[in-house]
Amino acid sequence: MKSIIFCCILATFSFSSIYGQVSSAEQAVKKAEKKVADKMIEKTFNGLVNKLFGSDSTKTTENTSVRTDSTVTSNSSPFGGLFSSKTVDKEFKFDMTLDMEMVTKDKKGKGDVIYVKAHYSQDSAYIGTEMENIFNIMDFGDKKNYALMGGKVTIMNLESFIDKANKKAKKKEENEEIPEFTKTGKTEMVAGYKCDEYLVEDEDFTGHYYIANGIGLNPEVYAKTFDANPAINYPKDQRGVILKMVIENTKDKTTTTMITKEVIKQELNYDLSKYKATDLSKLF
To answer: Domain named DUF4412: which ranges (predicted)?
Structure first.
């Protein structure tokens, strides 16, 4: 309940700070986290290694001045190309976009709005998320995460992340009851679509979910995207798509709202072979 796939949106600045662990919606929208993650992604692994080993510098000994080039790349020894990939023979096609706003407000009603686009494919189990200058793709087929930024793509393994999430959810199920979606009978128009309201409650949170049917997205594909976040007990027989959610933290009195402003039906293609790749999937 404390998290939902739309926080994977923020895989752009999550996934262990770079791609993120799916955390609570409150954590996902923290401005500070976003800034740190943007910076980390921009540097990528090569930049981080250079920082650890030091940049080009001139070291002076007693008798000579020695030029020391400590620049390290993914192809340098001892790495030997372990993390690099000349090309990624992968193409993603999206045919529907949810243009959304997310905001977490404190008990005083203050909070910053984050604008996010979630891209879906009608017949493929992957989701693209776009925020500012970062485009992130979570592929649940080959269980890989692809982050695109500045003409580069960084690849990370999604399988271990999903496995850990499933184990955590299973353990939680054994220790406590996972709250169910309850249909309230209320309806609301969101982005031009009629939505049914569902209520989810536990001791810490109260969540209102507004689910629309018939927007043209394959429900099986949509439900598959929840594999990365089993903490939310999304109904297996649900045929709709969440267009709005409001989560109230009963302890700290914060409220997180995600609302779809527009459902855009247009095709987007991403050919990853055109991007310079850094493959970190062998590490994690």
So the answer is: 98-216
